[in-house]
Amino acid sequence: MSHNSRSCIRLVNMVFYARHGVLREEQALGAKYEVDATLRLDFSAAAQNDDIAKTVDYGGVYQKIRELFTQKKYNLLETLAFDIAGNLLRDFPVLDEVSIRVRKHNPPINGICDFAEAEYQAERS
Predict the structure, then answer these.
(1) Which of 2, 70, 62, 17 is closest to 36 using CA atoms?
(2) DSSP for the chain?
(3) One digit per residue, pLDDT tens: the chain, 125 residues?
(4) CA–CA gap between residue 107 and residue 59 (Å, rounded)
(5) Please, what sign has the CA dihedral across residues 90, 82, 72, 102?
């Protein structure tokens, strides 16, 4: 059975505690961040053969995201989303495209807001 297929795997609401942010208080106190990753790849061969070797190791994806979150401090959610996407494409050749969303609850704005979120989408060139 040969056909063009598009499929994706989503890791939804991964939670990390980190000290990112522009404001000194954010860096001192730290905050809870949430990350969603949409990983696009063709996993039909993995599905047909029930073979993990032909898909993406999402345990490995999670570890890479956690590593980036805890390795250095970022001022911007935008930079986090950008770096995560680029690193995943570099380290997981099976991926065709990734979309990363990074959320921070109760962002430091003068008003009520559930969360601020940055999304970055990148595809293999």
Answers:
(1) 62
(2) ------EEEEEEEEEEEE--SSSHHHHHH-EEEEEEEEEEE--HHHHHHT-GGGS--HHHHHHHHHHHHHHS--S-HHHHHHHHHHHHHHH-TT-SEEEEEEEEES-SSSS--SEEEEEEEEE--
(3) 445 667 899 999 999 988 766 667 666 667 889 999 999 999 988 888 888 888 899 999 999 999 998 888 888 899 999 999 999 999 999 999 999 999 998 787 889 989 999 999 999 98
(4) 29
(5) negative
**Structural domains for the chain:** 7-123 (3.30.1130.10)
At 62 the pLDDT is 97
Q: What is the pTM of this model?
A: 0.86
Residue 32 among the catalytic residues: no
Q: Give the position of tokens 């795997």.
A: 9
Strand partners, 10: 38
